[in-house]
Amino acid sequence: MSLTSGSIAPFARPPGGALNVALPDSPAHVLYVHALEQRIRADVAGLTVVDSTDTKMLHETGLPARWYFPADAVRADLLEPSGTTSHCPFKGDARYWHLRIGDRLIEDAFWEYPSMLEGAPDVAGFLAPYQEKFDRWRVEDEEVRGHPRDPFHRVDARRSSAHVSVRAGGEVIAESTRPVALYETGLPVRWYLPEDDVRGGRLVPSDTTTVCPYKGTASYWTLEAGGRSFADACWTYREPLLEALPTRGHRSFMGEGISVEVQR
Known about the structure:
Radius of gyration: 22 Å
Strand order of the largest sheet: 12-15-16-20-19-18-17
Strand content: over 45%
Number of helices: 0
Number of domains: 2
Shape: globular
Oligomer: single chain
Largest sheet: 7 strands, antiparallel
CATH topology of the largest domain: Metal Binding Protein, Guanine Nucleotide Exchange Factor, Chain A
Distance between the termini: 27 Å
CATH architecture of the largest domain: Beta Complex
Number of strands: 21
């Protein structure tokens, strides 16, 4: 879903799209590093432990993009060496660092490549975090959640007059001529229907939530229709991020046994 991952990603050997040159067989695994012109900060227990305006982003075939911070952007006084090591056949040997704040120890909070394999983009000496182990991340002054946002990933939510109907268990559960079509890099179009146009079946609130760094936090329902139960088949973004804002007050459906039919 970027340069290196997804059905149309140019460096992920995609089944879709076309280039005017053939990609060589080697390397099959692509690394790409570039600078970010953003201030990025991380907080733990109310203390800022990362503050960087010189971050690098690493793109790697089949993996989400990652932040790499210069060592002087991380509170060195809070780091403790870890005995963990790992080997990447494309980058080299990594060592890890714990993060300690008072009595709280975050094990293997960062990893680092002291040196890089020949030909690999240079992030030697930069520290990469397991973002989910920290309490809070901010890009400029806005809090962000989920994995780092990939600048090559795009979300567009467009209001439409297409006729969209959703069927489950042989029953029409939703039908609308005022849906929102959500286009997201490398993914199928998702259709979001106004809540007032969902009129069949029964929706039972679920405890499931998911976080998308581009759309926000999704809440789910289990759908009961046609004598069947479809777990977490319906979701919405109650407070969508800017790119997905038109989906507010709309619901989308997906799952085995559910069909979404679109007529233009």
